[in-house]
Amino acid sequence: MENKYSIEQIKSAHKILKEFTYVPKPVNKGYSGETLYVNLSTNEIKIKQVTERMKDVFIGGRGFGLWYLWNAVTEKTRWNDPENEIIISPGPIGGITQYPGAGKSLVVSLSPITGSAMDSNVGGYFGPYMKFSGFDAIEIQGKAPKDVVVFIDGDNGRVTIEEAPLEDINSHIICEQLTELYAKDEADRLHVATVASGKAAEHTLIGHLNFSFYDKRRKGTRLKQAGRGGIGTVFRDKKIKGLVVRTTNIKGNSNTPADQALLNKTGIKLHKEIHRNDDKQCHMRTQGTAHLVEIMSDYDLLPVNNFKFGSHEKARQMASWVWEKKFTQGIPDGCWFGCTLACAKAVDGFQLKTGPYKGDKVIVDGPEYETVAGVGSCCGIFDPDAVVELNFYCDTYGVDTISFGTLTAFAMECFENKIITEKETGGLKLNFGNHEAALELLHQMARGEGFGKVAGMGVRRMKEYFVKNYNADPKFLQDIGMECKGLEYSQYVSKESLAQQGGYALTNKGPQHDEAWLIFMDMVNNHIPTFENKAEALHYFPLFRTWFGLNGLCKLPWNDVEPEDNPKTDEPAKVPEHVQNYVDLFNGVTGKKIDKKELIRMSERVYNFQRVFNLKMGFGTREHDIPPYRSVGPVTCEEYESRKDRYDKQLKEKAGISPEGLSTEEKVKKMREYREKQYQMLVDAVYKRRGWNEKGIPKLETLKDLSIDFEDVVKIVKSKM
Ligand code: SF4
Q1: What's the CATH code of the domain at 638?
Q2: What is the pLDDT of residues 152-181, one digit of tens each?
Q3: How far away, in angstroms, is 246 Cα from ligand 1 center?
């Protein structure tokens, strides 16, 4: 691909605005003990000490991010105020190479789309390289007047803020440019990691960040996404073109763990298990998470046409075997060293058919399941090449494929219901299945033009806009607009799983599956039949999953491969042997002595703190935990009729209402009354289990018990009670 400027031109246009030197602290037991603070308004660069209290209470990763953000913003701060920060932290286990899935970074910021604290988990090498350059976190505040690059030179202990006028904005180009610019030679590119966003992040609220790693077999940079909540939009609002780190300090013991032998032993055990079982279980090494497509369709869980339906006969056009053929096989696709689960698949040499790079052959990272379902089936699109093209442009333009898919599907349903027409869309025929219109919408977002600008505000703001400007029925839009707390739903149909309805809507950041995914436990296996069972699951699993984000870990090696005897254990859904692995990893790195119970307590502190953070920002109470009805049950007669036998049976057997003689409209109404009541009963049970009051506010005794009853935390909680 041709770049507009040569690397020499780009380099000579850089002007150093600030230079800061430091002595890189070696990492000891998972921590360097220092955070890099950068203010882009004042060009201040300084080092902050990581305190023992931070390590004890917030652990690292998402916990550190929330703590720094809490101290940086007030309840009045908005996402585009200079006070807002972007914090990146890998956590204490992050960066080990012995155990699969240990290279994640956690990104935290005030979200443009929710207005509260957002956390996003991402692969790529930036987080670990930053740690091995001496920093447990980077905290970026302020706004630059012109585009800048922040460079951390870990080998020489130097940080610079550089004016960077000539680089591209779109990630597939700028990540290559920055990698080449800061590497000494081609072999050295492996030592450089970058973070960038894209043009659409500038014009929408759903911008994401791309974290790169250099793939020496493909001789190109690969991109992994911190997708959720619009942090890419914050990044570009701060006029950051890129973050770059370079270090050669990448060894198997760079974390200087307390017990290297324990890490080796735990890692070898899982490597062998993956080798034995992956081909028989989830096929992550050959299909990545795209192996889920036909499974979700078979279980009626694949979102189709804005979550109206859960399956489609054409889903098989995008099934796992289709992706297996498209993914380049034989290359170990781990997004960090040592990840033998290796699900970071890619389509190589894909020739683009549209947009500014039409005709170019590119590497496309993915698609992962969420992308196939989001920009594919949820929009009624079942053409795999169209999905790959949408995937590529979402990535390089810096927009989240999940939000893009869900908001496009919403706009399509509005179009089909004539709430918006070609007049409002500027000629775009946004019918379900029209991938050309979806692509054009995406290109408009990147250009900041037309209906792309309206759609790029996200589902919540589109609803308000359509009501205000097009006289749309607010109740119908509320029912079909798949967002909660402002964040677009990720890609699972939750209508038939009460626990998953809570798993989505009772989250801190909004409906994202990385917090709780209970559909199989609840709907398929019926392992959590009572409200108390569901509440227990909605206590344990979000906390267990939160723990990955405190430590720089990927969730996938936890349960996308399992020991052979796992089904015979007491609690197979928890995968007890793997939970013990994580206890061993934490103890092996930090030298502490936690057990499985303490692991959950660690998360519980941060989780409750994040709930209070929501309260601080004006959210975090019961009314914000109510899902759109589309995620709870059938909104329209069409949806009811498509599953008539199932719903009639449920009305009779569960709700005690005979469907005989009722019109479909009446049945939809009765079903809704029943399901909404069930949901409220679930909320009561979950709040009780979590130690929150009936409004969803953590009780003072809960905060005390967790030792997070800090003065300002208690003050906020008291003011909301
Ligand atoms: S399992 Fe996949 S996403 Fe997770 S660390 Fe490994 S390659 Fe990355």
Answers
A1: 1.10.599.10
A2: 999 999 999 999 999 999 999 999 999 999
A3: 22
| Residue-level pLDDT at 561 | 95
Given a contact cutoff of 8 angstroms between Cβ atoms, the answer to whether 339 and 97 are in contact is no
CA 648 to chain centre: 37
pLDDT, residue 174, reads 98
Where residue 402 sits, what CATH number does that domain have?
A: 1.10.569.10
pLDDT at 215: 94
Does residue 554's CB lie within 6 angstroms of at least one atom of ligand 1?
yes
DSSP-based three-state secondary structure for 15: strand
Q: At 228, which CATH number?
A: 3.60.9.10
Name which of 689, 706, 434 is nearest 542 in CA terms. 689
Which ligand 1 atom lies nearest to the CA of residue 333?
7
Cα→Cα distances 699→206, 425, 597, 709, Å: 33, 48, 21, 10
Residues of the chain where predicted confidence (pLDDT) is lower than 50: 1
Domain residues for the domain of 395 are 278-488
Tokens representing residue 53 in the block: 């209290």
Ligand 1 probe mutation, 106, 556, 578, most atoms within 8 A of CB: 556
Pairing of strands 240-246, 148-153: parallel
pLDDT at 520: 87
Do residues 196 and 175 touch, judged by C-beta distance below 8 A?
yes
Q: How far apart are CA 567 and CA 587, in angstroms?
A: 27
| Global pTM exceeds 0.90 | yes
Residue 3 is predicted with a pLDDT of 62
- Nearest alpha carbon to residue 547 among 520, 577, 515: 515
Q: What is the pLDDT at residue 200?
A: 98
Number of structural domains the chain divides into: 3
